[in-house]
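Entry 14. Two folds queued back to back today. First construct below, sequence then structure tokens.
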Amino acid sequence: MELFLSPASPGGLKVAAAAEVTGLRPELRPVSGTEQVVPFKSHSNLPALQLPTGDFIFSTNAICQYLFTLSGKEPSDATNQWLEWEATQLQPAMQTALHATLVQGRSSKEAIVAVRKQLSHLDRALTDRATPCVTSDTVTVADVVLWGALYPLLQDASCLPEDFAAVREWFQRMSSTGACLKAVASVLEGKGVQIFKAYLQKQPTPAPLPEKPASNETEDRRCS
């Protein structure tokens, strides 16, 4: 297997971490912004995992799930729900937050408002379950995907409000693991999250930051 990574894409964090956690380390192929990875696509969607059959997997969450499944860690209903939640609820909010911090120069504490509803949902789930990880006592694909999505904003978690204590503890625990440390080193290349700025500038402008914290009253509790 070959894993094509661009240092400019935030999605590379979760994929690199999944490769480390599972011990399935595909051959890493750093890709420049102009290099064509897939012969039949004019613009490659990175990260991309090329399978031994020659087929490609492009979705970051699908790549992570594939690596976990290949390592013998089958998905559960809970991990599937968290991956769906991350893709449909967390990712759009994170796009707003990262555009605000990396493109507009807003502080992380200001940008937290964009993901406050999602952080509240995750914090409540971690508190209710009372396990070290999101769905169990051990790291699953859900932990890796959520950590990778949040890392560019939270980094050292110092910007988290005090009422997200469970998220802070979980995030710091994940960030200190060897797998996540290696993922950060390989994707950020010592340049920090500013490396993602050029990628974000090329994306459609997301919704602006909310003027006040979003209400949690209608929060989806499917993953609790």
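Second construct, same run, same settings:
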Amino acid sequence: MLDVSRVQKELVECNRDKSTSGVSIELNGDELSHLSGTISGPVATPYEGGTFQIDIRLPDGYPFEPPKMQFITKVWHPNISSQNGAICLDILKDQWSPALTLKTALLSLQALLSAPEPDDPQDAVVAQQYLRDYPTFLGTARYWTEAFAKRASVGTEEKVQKLLEMGFPEALVRATLESVGGDENMALEKLCSC
């Protein structure tokens, strides 16, 4: 059974210093077992300036079982699937320990952005590019960060207006757009699946 008090403490702890750590977590709906994480792209990497959304699902066995994490924001990285956001990171699999927290997991993802492991890839195409044509990898990673991870305030009101015209409530539209980094298509998919 999910340790509710621990999860609540972890949420408070994670969000206490989000401006310095660059990571935060919030509820994704009403259930404590489904959360949304946010990490800032590390300085001096092609992800710098980006804000990356992470879907977090806590199994009933948490903290004795690892959280299930997946990038919602598209990212070009050898250890993250460019197709579905799946993550290859040992602490999210067999190296998880109950001593770890959601914050340490998000900080580990942030560190992974800084130090890719192309020899243990999640996305073989990206890993090959990283190993064989590093300048092209950097350019592609920067482009994807610009395209998918930087929040453009310009155009947000137009996106909100379009979704409002489809009959969705404004508060839900704004929260959904925020949770998917302003991606109108992803927001529509999410709104339709509610």
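Quick look at the second one. The longest strand covers residues 34-40. The helical segments are 4-16, 18-21, 102-114, 124-132, 134-149, 156-165, 170-179, 184-193.
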